[in-house]
Amino acid sequence: MLSNPASRYRRPPAVDLPQRQWPNRQIENAPVWLSTDLRDGNQALFEPMSRERKLEFFHHLVRTGFKEIEIGFPAASQIDFDVVRQLVENGEIPSDVWPMAMTQAREDLIQRTIASLAGARRAIVHLYNATSPVWRRIVFNMSVAEVMQFIEHHVSLVKKLTDQHPETEWVLQYSPETFCMTELEVSLQACNTAIRAWDAGPGRKIIINLPTTVEVSTPNVFADQIEWMHQRLERREHVVLSVHPHNDRGTGVACAEQALLAGAQRVEGCLFGNGERSGNVDLVTLALNLYTHGIHPGLDFSDISGLARVVETATGLPIHPRHPYAGDLVFTAFSGSHQDAIKKGLAVQRRDDVWEVPYLPLDPADIGRSYDGIIRVNAQSGKGGIAYLLEREHGVVLPRRMLVEFSAVVQKAADASEAELSGADLWKLFESSYLNAHAQAEKGIQYLDHTLRQDGDGVQVDIELGPPASRRVIRGMGTGPIDATVHALGLPVSVHAYEEKSLKQGADAQALAIVEIALEGLPGTCFGAAISENLATASILAVLSAVSRAVQALPRPIGEMAAA
Ligand SMILES: CC(=O)SCCNC(=O)CCNC(=O)[C@H](O)C(C)(C)COP(=O)(O)OP(=O)(O)OC[C@H]1O[C@@H](n2cnc3c(N)ncnc32)[C@H](O)[C@@H]1OP(=O)(O)O
Ligand SMILES: CC(C)C(=O)C(=O)O
Known about the structure:
- The protein has 564 residues and is an alpha/beta fold.
- The chain is built from 18 helices and 14 strands.
- The chain has helices at 37-43, 51-64, 78-89, 107-117, 133-140, 144-163, 184-198, 219-232, 252-261, 283-291, 304-315, 336-348, 383-394, 400-417, 423-435, 481-489, 535-551, 558-561; strands spanning 32-35, 68-72, 98-104, 122-130, 169-177, 206-212, 239-245, 266-269, 447-455, 458-465, 472-478, 493-504, 510-519, 526-532.
- It is elongated and about 110 Å long.
- Residues 40, 128, 175, 177, 209, 211, 213, 244, 246 line the site of 3-methyl-2-oxobutanoic acid.
């Protein structure tokens, strides 16, 4: 039993913002993206990335289209320092990409951070300090006034040190860590202190990065906090307003999206939501959410599975099969009505038209995934998935009533196996239920051979039935092979429908024949099917298949009923 939370947990206060604008807005453009996979993502791993892995990951991020990449915390880790140096010294950072390095507000750490970036064409120094009451009291033991002096002192130091490297274009990023838990007036004071100490102005940009260091509120409260700041920050035109959502309440993506409505221009996060605790905001989901609204995110996720494997290898963490867009199961429908609707949708969807396939939020092909795994068949499936697999893998299109009949067979098999049925399983079931139904000795007919010859205007068929030890021949005359076979059987059978289809072309061409019959004494109709290189043979076998299946329900074996 969960204990009563009322006395142990508090809901953070709402923001007094009666004129809030964000609920009426839509996201119109992609934000600036910053990948913190190599910093926040990396600091949250059982085994942080090696130097080689970091470098490789960095280049993947560049190829994906990131223009801002937090490479690490060079003052805290020799690997991070070496990686930054290698990238800078070897000129491996493309001219339009901003590397970013993080530091605490401590003089020695700031010096080393700037030393790591020296010589870069452009660079972002990321300075942070926590500002919320709990951190002020427990971690830093500082008053609000002392926190402001602390910020002023360390931002000024960053300015002084970076001014000594005019060959580099410097930007300061200031993060009031724990922003979402800080009184808004204090956050504003902290950010404005940084803006002034950095002397933000024309050609001197500052990034103000507001994190949900630990996500504690509903996304609407975070959006209110962002809009409140957006309206009040000093020198706003020289400030890039950024957010850094975490996902402790599972609403990181919602927080980021609503923050964009509220005035944020930039988002920091990790691919597939890696990062401290329940992760940083997932940049893949955010970007593809935009994409499905017709807005290009400026990031290339056209090979999402390839990227997922890169990230899994680098982090040592698996991506959940139901992870939005990237999970193995997200383009798979298990339930019958979903499969049916997807099949119908795919049949009418044209490549360049607006995407309207039911149940699939985007065209899997757009992110390098194929339709292959879309339909699966299990005990929850209906006709749609079965029809899709038979058609895709064997070119077999069953008449609707036959599909209904066969789906009952599939359902039974799936229930018995308690597993998913593959296309191959489905075909085996189709073979044993229909294509080989005439070859089963037990209750049905065991076909061995036949001869067919023209007889005046009609045909005569001689069919050899088994078992081989007591083989016998039944003969029938008719207008064609089907009619003759029915007569040969001598059973009260009437043929309701017949269709044939060629399955392959050329030398190995094959015909599929499908027959629907009624057998006196049995309710409804029953289907049979057969495949042969010869159409007449396929027709004869299809009748035998249908009759054999129909008599399965009869009390006496077919041999006793058939005319000998
Ligand atoms: C929310 C985030 O993700 S922030 C990023 C967090 N990432 C990391 O910390 C990863 C790497 N960090 C480290 O390896 C280490 O913390 C180092 C090397 C930076 C510093 O190591 P140490 O000097 O041993 O300090 P330690 O790790 O114990 O950190 C606690 C100290 O840092 C201080 N501190 C914490 N945050 C800050 C900050 N933003 N600015 C200034 N000081 C800070 C604390 O007050 C505490 O100081 P105290 O020792 O005087 O009480
Ligand atoms: C932006 C920084 C300080 C951060 O990682 C956080 O607050 O989660």
